[in-house]
Structures are given as C-alpha cells and as structure tokens.
Amino acid sequence: MSNYALILAGGSGTRFWPLSRNARPKQLLDLFGSGTLLCQAIERLSGIVPAENIFILTNHLQEAEVRRQAVSLPAENIVAEPTRRDTAPAVALGIGLIAARDPQANMIIIPSDALITNAPAFRELAADALSLAGRENALITIGIKPTWPCPSYGYIERAGKLEDAALSHNCYEVVRFREKPDTATAEQYLASGNFSWNAGMFIWNVAHVRSQLSAHSPELADFINRLTATDELPAFITDEFPKLTPISIDFALLEKADRVLNFEATFDWDDVGSWISVGKYLEDKGNANSTNTPVSTVDASGNIVFSTSGKHVALVGVDDLIVVDTGDALLVARRDAADNIKKVVADLPDKLI
After folding, report:
1. Beta bridge partners of 262
2. Claim to verify: residue 193 and residue 314 sit in the same structural domain
3. Distance between CA atoms of 325 and 44, rounded to whole angstroms?
4. 323 and 257, same domain (yes or no)
5. Of 209, 233, 264, which residue sits at a domain end?
6. Are 82 and 142 in the same domain?
C-alpha cells in the first residue's frame, strides 16, 4: 500500500492527425486494437500499485476523455494542469499529491503514450525498483537498451553494477545524462554498451526526492511544501502551478541529483512516435503494405493504410504512402514526410484540430 504511481497523460494530438486531435492525442487512441495506450498503462500497474494509489496528470482539453477511460481510478486522482509547464512542474505536482497522502511513499512515474506488450516483465522490474527505492537514497530510472543509434532520444550513461542481493534485475550507477546526440555520437554510445535510452520512467521514495529537490530545485520543493499544507487544493493548483518555471525534470533534478541508479528494461518498449511506428504493428498485406482495413493493391509497396470506418482502400502504382481515413478527414502523405504531418495542423479549421 506504500506504492504509488503517477501517469503523465498530456501532450498534443498532432503527430497522429487526423486520428488524433487536441482532445484525443496518441495515448487516448486505440491504435492497435488492444485498448488505448492510457488504459494499457493503467492495467500494467496492476499488482504493484493499488488502483486507489494511481494518479493521472493531464490537461483541461483531455480531462473529460481521460476520466471516461480511467473509470477504475478515484475521480480525485485525475488532475488537470491549468497550463503546460514541461515535465519538472508536472512531476512536482504529482509528488505533492502523493506526499499529501503518504509522506513516506515509494512512487513510480511513467508516460502514458509508450507501447509495452510484455506487461509481466514490466511489473517484475517495476516491483524490484520500487523495493529498491525504499532502501536506497537514490533516484532510480528505467532505461531502454538502444537498438540503433537514434539521435532523437536522450541517453543515460551507466557505470558499475549495484551489488544488492535482494535485486532480481541488474541495476547500475549513473554517470550522467546525455542530451539528444548527433548520429555519429549516438553510434559511439551504442558501441560502448553502457548507455540506455531515457524513456522518462522514474522511481523514488517521496521523502528522498523532496530532499533532493530542496537541494537542487528549491522552487519546486517550495511548491510541494505549500501544496501539502493547503486546505484548498484545486485553487492552489490553479493559482500557483502556472507560476512555475517551465523546465524538464532531467534539467531541474536528475542531472544535478546526488545519486542516480539505472535499471535497463527487460521488457519491450516503443514510443510509437509516428504513423511509421504504427505501421509495424498493422497487418502485413504483402509488398510491405500494412493496414488495419481491407486493401487491394496493384504495383504498390511500402504503404501504410489506416481507416476507422473499415473502408476498402485500393492502391495502384503508389509506393511509400501514409493514408489515414477518419470519415471527417483524409491524410495522404509520403512516409519520408511523416515528421511534417504535425505542421499541417496549423492550417486546419478548428473543427479538425
């Protein structure tokens, strides 16, 4: 009962337009026919964190849909940020909410928008990390073993292995956090074998992280102290949260912390960053065409087709396209332009955003 969780469920709905919208970004979509990423994140915590100890932090645009999907959680555990302030203020708000319940809690922070299919392996590692947080004065991260020299992720550099007979998984001391590198540097990280991708998953004891914030980020520490003392929580969040400096939790705390540890994930992980990522999980119709809807093809290859209506799609003489049909909108894009989909959203009518 001393284990708590904070699920970060904000963000915008631009990369997966037209399926995603501001009120329904990636984590609120059922992209793979196995439930939304948010619902999967909640279920993944089953057995290690009681439902009454799971908090979700979202924003006002998505609050209604988050509440609809997270009906298994107490209503008061779903909190909407009054404005966006990056991950450090969001995490501080989560720490404060949990500290007000249990000042000695151990907590895990996870994003809501990653795909993890091996939930049992996640639970085993998370339970190990939460147990360690209760007996080590350290901030703990879960990293992902790099599979290619990705320049889009932050990296965690590891040193020696932690000797703890109670652990079931390997855990390492952290040397430093590295920002998104160029490809050549990422190749060096991959070759060294002692780097993990930073997946934004953190575990710590609430009392310890508050002491670290007091030492390295007093603005956030003060915010938490005042939050835990207030009798007017909604009004306090509305008034005081927007005043916090927008900064990432990596910059505000983890890169300055006295001691950080790292578990390398033993489970699969995909941040599902674009329609190209989704295509890997759709049905293969041959010639590298992937789809969730009936298709007919002639001289067509490398296409991704997604439809919410089950509409039959015919592809003739086209290669490497992304085609997404949602009834009220149709996207046709080249695969190599997937990162530019978010740019078109700025020119769309409000009803489609």
Report:
1. 141, 172
2. no
3. 30
4. no
5. 264
6. yes
Q: Is residue 214 part of a domain?
A: yes
**DSSP assignment of 178-215:** EPPPPHHHHHHHHHHS-EEEEEEEEEEEHHHHHHHHHH
CA angle 22, 68, 35 (to 5 degrees): 80
Q: Which domain holds residue 227?
A: 3-264
- Give me the pLDDT at residue 272, please: 92
Calpha distance 348→330 (Å, rounded): 12
Same domain? For 132 and 253 the reply is yes
- Cα pseudo-dihedral 202, 208, 209, 214, rounded to 10: -160
pLDDT average per 10 residues of sequence, the chain (353 residues):
93 88 93 93 97 97 97 97 95 98 98 96 98 96 95 94 93 94 94 95 98 98 98 97 97 96 97 93 95 96 95 97 95 94 90 91
Q: Tell me how far apart the alpha carbons of residues 37 and 269 are, in angstroms, rounded to a whole number.
A: 12
Instruction: Return the pLDDT at 288.
Output: 96
- Say if residue 254 is in the same domain as residue 282: no
What is the rounded distance in angstroms from the CA atom of residue 147 to the CA atom of residue 268?
Answer: 11
In a shared domain, residues 10 and 82: yes
φ, ψ of residue 3 to 5 degrees: the values are -90, 135
| Confidence (pLDDT) at 118 | 97
Tokens at 258, concatenated: 């006295």
Query: 3-class SS at 278?
Result: helix
CATH number at residue 50: 3.90.550.10
Residue 270 located in a structural domain: no
Hey, is 108 helix, strand or coil?
strand
Is there a single domain that holds both residue 120 and residue 222? yes
Which pTM was predicted?
0.94
Structure tokens at 150: 């990705």
